[in-house]
Amino acid sequence: MLDPKIRDLASTGQNFGTVALTLPNGQIASHVMWVDADDDHIIFNTEVHRAKFRALSDGTQVTVTVWKAESPYAYAEVRGHVAEIVRGDEARAHIDALAARYTGTEYTNPIESERVIVKIAPDRQRTSNL
Length: 130
Prior knowledge:
Blueprint: H1 4-11, E1 16-22, E2 28-34, E3 36-37, E4 42-47, H2 51-54, E5 61-68, E6 71-86, H3 89-103, E7 115-128
Antiparallel strand pairs: 1-2, 1-5, 3-4, 4-7, 5-6, 6-7
């Protein structure tokens, strides 16, 4: 179960997250992203052609840090693993919902491949100043 403070931070407002993972060549990559959450997962949305997605599979270890937009010293860190990848219409609708939350409009960037939702199950969670 995701800590309710983390769920609320990630699923409301314009609080950005950083997704950190290890690429196949061993380098660590981090990406600032729009984030979301449900009761059990921290969530992000990407496309299948991107390096971050190509580095993921079931069980891949990922760290997501989310900070409060108006107070960046208020943040949460979730260290976890890929629990589920959602494709299709649900993933497309999700990026539109994220865009509306973060920008006020539906997603307008061209989709080059396929949108996917990546759900991270927490193995370790912590918060600071939330």
